[in-house]
C-alpha cells in the first residue's frame, strides 16, 4: 500500500507548486502539511515523494522561461563558435549562470552529512524562516531598486548564485528568499531580482531534482500518487511563477516577510507542543 493517498498527493503537489518559487520555504510548508495530515515526515517514501514532485515545479520554470532559456543558450552556442558574439549580454550571462552554480554544488557535496543530518531539523527550518524574514525586510527597505535585468554583471550573478548556499545549509531560509534578498541588496529592482533568482536557480534545482529522483522512485510512495503530485506541482508552480512576477512589479516583499514570520512561529508552536517532531 502506498504511503501517500491520491488526495494527499494533490494537496502536497499544490503546496510544493505554490511555495517552491515564492520566498517562503517549500521545505517548511511541506513538513507542516505532512504533519497535520498525519503523514510520517521522516518516512523514506514520504521524503522520496517530496523529491519527485519537486521535479514538476522545476519543469514549470523551464516551460515558463523556455523562450528566454532558448535565447540564452542560442547566444551561448553562437559565442562558442564566433568571437564577435561573445560581447552579447546573453552569451556572458550563460557563463555567469554556470560559474554561479559551482559554489552551491561544491558546498552541497562537501556538507551533505550536515545537510541530511542536524541541519535538516525542523527547529532549524523555523528559525531560518524568521531570520530570513528580517534579511528580506532589510534588503527590500534599503535596496534602491534602480537596476534592471540588462544591468546585471558577473559580480551580481556570483553573489546572488552563491547566496543559494544559505538555503542549502539552513532549510527554511528559502532559496528564492536568499537570492531575491541578495539581488535587492545589489540595488536590482524587484522584477529583475525575481527573474535573476529564477534563472540562477534553474541549474541547481534541476541538478538536485534529478539527483534525488534516482533514489526516490523506489521508496514505495506509489506510482499513481507520484504522477498526480508531480502534475499538480507543475500546474500550480506555473501559475505561481506568473503571479509572482506580476505581484513584485507593483508591491514590496512585506507580505512575504509577515507571512514567513507567522509560519515560523506556527512551526515553533507545532514542534513545542509535539504535533510535529523535528
UniProtKB/TrEMBL annotation:
Catalysed reaction(s) here are: di-trans,octa-cis-undecaprenyl diphosphate + H2O = di-trans,octa-cis-undecaprenyl phosphate + phosphate + H(+)
Query: What InterPro entries does the record tag this protein with?
Result: UppP
Identify the keywords attached in UniProt to this record, alphabetized: Antibiotic resistance, Cell membrane, Cell shape, Cell wall biogenesis/degradation, Hydrolase, Membrane, Peptidoglycan synthesis, Transmembrane, Transmembrane helix
Q: Which GO terms describe its molecular function?
A: undecaprenyl-diphosphatase activity
Record-annotated membrane-spanning stretches: 45-65, 93-115, 121-139, 192-211, 223-245, 257-276
Q: Offer one Pfam family short name for this entry.
A: BacA
Subcellular location per the Swiss-Prot or TrEMBL entry: Cell membrane
Q: Which GO terms describe its biological process?
A: cell wall organization; peptidoglycan biosynthetic process; regulation of cell shape; response to antibiotic
Which superkingdom? Bacteria
Q: How does it sit in the membrane?
A: Multi-pass membrane protein
Query: Under the cellular component aspect of Gene Ontology, which terms does the record hold?
Result: plasma membrane
Q: What is its main location?
A: membrane
* Enzyme Commission number, as recorded: 3.6.1.27
Q: What else is known?
A: Bacitracin is thought to be involved in the inhibition of peptidoglycan synthesis by sequestering undecaprenyl diphosphate, thereby reducing the pool of lipid carrier available.
Q: Which family does it belong to?
A: Belongs to the UppP family.
- Which HAMAP family does the record associate with it? Undec_diphosphatase
Q: Which function does this protein serve?
A: Catalyzes the dephosphorylation of undecaprenyl diphosphate (UPP). Confers resistance to bacitracin.
Name of the protein in its database record: Undecaprenyl-diphosphatase
Gene source species: Streptomyces coelicoflavus
Amino acid at each position: 500500500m502506498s504511503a501517500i493517498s491520491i488526495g494527499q498527493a494533490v494537496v502536497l503537489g499544490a503546496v510544493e507548486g505554490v511555495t517552491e518559487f515564492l520566498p517562503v520555504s517549500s521545505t517548511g510548508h511541506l513538513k507542516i502539511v505532512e504533519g497535520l495530515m498525519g503523514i510520517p515526515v521522516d518516512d523514506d517514501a514520504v521524503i522520496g515523494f517530496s523529491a519527485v514532485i519537486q521535479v514538476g515545479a522545476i519543469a514549470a520554470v523551464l516551460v515558463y522561461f523556455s523562450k528566454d532559456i532558448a535565447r540564452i543558450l542560442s547566444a551561448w552556442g553562437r559565442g562558442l563558435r564566433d568571437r564577435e558574439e561573445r560581447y552579447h549580454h546573453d552569451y556572458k550571462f550563460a557563463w555567469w549562470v554556470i560559474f554561479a552554480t559551482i559554489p552551491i554544488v561544491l558546498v552541497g557535496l562537501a556538507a551533505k552529512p550536515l545537510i541530511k543530518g542536524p541541519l535538516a531539523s525542523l527547529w532549524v527550518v523555523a528559525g531560518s524562516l524568521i531570520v530570513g524574514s528580517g534579511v528580506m525586510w532589510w534588503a527590500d527597505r534599503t535596496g534602491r531598486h534602480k537596476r534592471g535585468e540588462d544591468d546585471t554583471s558577473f559580480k551580481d550573478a556570483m553573489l546572488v548564485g552563491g547566496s543559494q548556499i544559505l538555503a542549502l545549509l539552513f532549510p527554511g531560509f528559502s532559496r528564492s528568499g536568499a537570492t531575491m534578498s541578495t539581488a535587492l541588496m545589489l540595488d536590482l529592482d524587484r522584477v529583475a531580482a525575481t527573474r535573476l533568482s529564477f534563472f540562477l536557480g534553474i541549474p541547481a534545482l534541476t541538478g538536485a531534482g534529478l539527483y534525488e529522483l534516482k533514489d526516490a522512485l523506489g521508496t514505495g510512495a506509489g506510482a499513481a500518487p507520484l504522477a498526480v503530485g508531480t502534475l499538480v506541482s507543475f500546474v500550480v508552480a506555473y501559475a505561481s511563477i506568473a503571479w509572482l512576477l506580476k505581484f513584485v512589479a507593483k508591491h514590496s516583499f512585506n507580505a512575504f516577510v509577515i507571512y514567513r514570520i507567522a509560519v515560523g512561529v506556527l512551526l515553533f508552536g507545532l514542534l513545542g507542543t509535539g504535533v510535529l517532531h523535528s
